[in-house]
Design a protein that fits this description.
FAD/NAD(P)-binding domain; Flavocytochrome C3, Chain A, domain 1; Methane Monooxygenase Hydroxylase, Chain G, domain 1; 7-stranded mixed beta sheet; 4-stranded antiparallel beta sheet; 13 helices
């Protein structure tokens, strides 16, 4: 199969990019690939909202920039922060023009929320399912575009580069080029190739490498792992954001239900097992401190008191407003016997967002030619060592737009080489059907356990070294399985997750300091080292 623009992923970054290219290039073919159904993305599960300076009287670009820089703890790229904050409002208005609906006040102005780390009310939301509403609007717009083909249930295995033509490709190879991808077609079980003039990675995050995460099952770090195998640049993977308040349900593993930070923005209070409001001990901003501080505070309270959770107290809040703003949280809590008007909500931190990823420049270009990246899989320089709440959806739209602007111009100036290059078919010779799925499922359990126990909110060098040894063994066993076994989504995802886990651990080992989301107890008194860890 051949296409002009290939988009891998159907979240807000991928859909925004595809829609813009389709409008600007009606004579070009755009293909979107997604490994499950089209709306199963990290975007869909984003509750809180999207940050933007919509009220110029009370708020300003300068304030939003400053809040982002403070949260990022010295590692943000200031130029990128300014780009995202200043261009973000236009992207939000564009999304509204495509049909996204955000909550409004009775007078017609948008309801603006406030979350941890923000100095002003600037969060637009659609109740507590903002991401789902944005995804809905974009998919509706995509359906109307005649030159977009959206193919579900296709698992991208690898990026095709000169390596597949028989050339030695290393990280120092100049001008690595992306020709397309190999794809596992889940309808027939065959690996097929899709060639493209331009590829955009919009593959989302990697929260599933941890035992407990707010991310859906599809968040397995596929894009980051593929770029790393293709010898592209990856950076800052040690900065994994743990959301402070995921709903604690005994025995539940995998995806946890998120209690959005907007609940604390509306006045909810964190309390420990003794009923004490503890955040004032850790930060003057109390419950609205940035996420890294709140998550570490909760982790410490749990350890001190020997509990597996703390509480979120919403009993004093206006219950009618709570029901209007957070209907899904209200319903979920009731389903497990928690009435927020009378009961405390049990919460604990869960892996939530990757601040690092595929290194990109201001136009979303990766270190591999013809390959762009946007959304959570990309490391743009916006988040630094810690993401400011509700900046992620904004970042995804801004860099989807910038990737669109740059790639459309590039494709006009470029005469495609793909027609003259003979890309080999996938070679599955010597592989057999898997005999025991337990070899995959057990390795996955071991991976999640090692990452959760040794590379979590608080780390030290001994834990990291132990995690590395466990990952080495898992890598060796899984590569042997990969060489001999017919491909399956489970095997490909395990392989990608081991790669991503290795990158997180390696980045954590290389960073000889505690900064933002990377909190290593062996480096609490070290001098500040301003650097990015590029792998």
């Amino acid at each position: 199969m051949q296409t002009n623009f290939l988009v891998i992923g159907s979240g807000i970054a991928g859909l925004t990019y595809a829609l813009k290219v389709a409008e600007a290039c009606p004579d070009k073919k755009i293909t979107i690939l997604t490994k499950t159904q089209s709306d199963e993305t990290n975007t869909k599960y984003a509750q809180g909202g999207i940050a933007g300076v919509m009220d110029k009287e009370q708020d300003s670009f300068e304030k939003h920039i400053e809040d982002t820089l403070i949260a990022g703890d010295g590692l943000c790229n200031e130029k990128i922060v300014e780009i995202v904050v200043k261009e973000g409002v236009d992207r939000i208005n564009e999304l509204i023009s495509w049909g996204a609906k955000f909550d409004k006040e009775p007078d017609g102005d948008y309801k603006l929320g406030k979350e941890g780390g923000h100095s002003e009310f600037r969060i637009l939301h659609h109740k507590d399912i903002t991401g789902k509403e944005m995804e809905r609007a974009l998919l509706e717009a995509i359906k109307k575009a005649k030159n977009i083909e959206l193919i579900s249930h296709c698992f991208v295995v690898d990026i095709i580069t000169q390596h597949h033509l028989g050339y030695l490709v290393t990280k120092s190879t100049p001008d690595i080029e992306c020709y397309g991808v190999y794809v596992l077609n889940l309808s027939n079980g065959k690996v097929e190739k899709i060639l493209a003039d331009v590829c955009l990675l919009a593959t989302g995050g990697n929260g599933q490498v941890y035992r407990t995460t707010t991310n859906p099952a599809i968040a397995t770090g596929d894009g980051v792992a593929m770029v790393y195998r293709a010898k592209g640049r990856i950076e800052n993977m040690e900065f994994i954001q743990f959301h402070p308040t995921a709903l604690y349900e005994p025995g539940v593993r995998g995806q946890s239900f998120l209690i959005t930070e907007a609940v604390r923005g509306d006045g909810a209070i964190l309390r420990n097992a003794n009923g004490e409001a503890f955040m004032e001990k850790y930060d003057s901003r109390k419950d609205l401190a940035p996420r890294d501080i709140v998550a570490r505070a909760i982790d410490n309270e749990m350890k001190v008191n020997g509990t597996e959770f703390v509480y979120l107290d919403c009993r004093h809040m206006d219950q009618q407003k709570f029901l209007e703003h957070f209907p899904n949280i209200h319903a979920k809590c009731l389903s497990i016997g928690v009435d927020v008007s009378k009961d405390l909500i049990p919460v604990s931190p869960a892996a939530h967002y990757s601040c690092g990823g595929v290194k990109t420049n201001e136009w979303a270009q990766t270190s591999i030619n013809n390959l762009y990246a946007a959304g959570e899989c990309a490391s743009t320089g916006l988040h630094g060592a810690n993401r400011l709440a509700s900046n992620s959806l904004l970042e995804a739209m801004v860099f989807a737009h910038r990737a669109f602007k740059h790639s459309v111009e590039a494709i006009k100036a470029n005469t495609s080489k793909n027609d003259a290059i003979k890309i080999p078919d996938w070679n599955a010779a010597g592989t057999t059907a898997p005999s025991e799925m337990i070899l995959i499922t057990q390795s996955l359990k071991e991976l999640k356990l090692a990452m959760s126990d040794y590379v979590g909110i608080v780390r030290n060098n001994k834990r990291l070294a132990r995690a590395n040894r466990r990952l080495d063994l898992l890598h060796e066993e899984t590569e042997q399985l990969y060489e001999k076994t017919e491909l399956s989504p489970q095997l490909c995802q395990l392989r990608n997750m081991i790669t991503v886990a290795y990158l997180i651990v390696k980045g954590a080992e290389l960073r000889k300091e505690s900064r933002g989301l990377h909190y290593n107890t062996d480096y609490l008194q070290q001098n500040i080292i301003l650097q990015n860890t590029i792998l």
